[in-house]
Amino acid sequence: MNGSALKITRIERGGVEIRNEIMVAEREEISGVRIVFGKGSCVIRGQVNVTGGGALKDWRMFVTAESEKEGVAALFGGSGRSAEVDDKGRFVIEGLLPGEYQLTLMATSRADANSPPRPNDGVPAPVTQKVLVTKGQEAQVTMTLDLSKKNREEK
After folding, report:
1. 97, HSE (Cβ side, Cα atoms, 13 Å)
2. Residues 82-100: pLDDT tens digits?
């Protein structure tokens, strides 16, 4: 996706923002509904650094950006974008609406890339970070994957 698609940013009924759902009574005539669209043109550009032993080339990494906005617009809007981290640790997530996003960095071993996932088996713990993206600005972030912090099942 190139970010040029319109996305729902807000739904209103009678001038009031609808956060979850529109309640309609039996045989009620529906009116006064307004759907506001926005163009996802914001960008998050990032760098991933690896610490705690190992090398960047040994891991396949993805970063997802989930919208912090709640309500109906989040169901239709710009959440759920992701990007793969390249061999130099860089990633770009495009086509976002302005707002606050929760970034999540997850890694799997390149050696395990063709085998079924094994949850919590020596995989580094996910890294999260919040970032604010504003219209006309490119958000720059740096995330650090600590390979000494493994994601293990709690007993």
Report:
1. 22
2. 999 999 999 999 988 888 9
Nearest to residue 91, comparing CAs of 81, 100, 99, 101? 81
Q: What is the CATH number of the domain that holds 131?
A: 2.60.40.1120
Q: Which residue from 133, 126, 132, 134 is spatially nearest to 59, judged by alpha carbons? A: 126
Q: How far apart are CA 127 and CA 149, in angstroms?
A: 10
Retrieve residue 112's tokens. Answer: 């395990």
Q: Domain count for the chain, please give it.
A: 1
Q: Is residue 105 part of a domain?
A: yes
Q: Is the pTM of this model over 0.85?
A: no
Tokens representing 6? 């319109």
* pLDDT tens by residue, 16-28: 888 777 778 888 8
Residue 31 lies in a domain: no
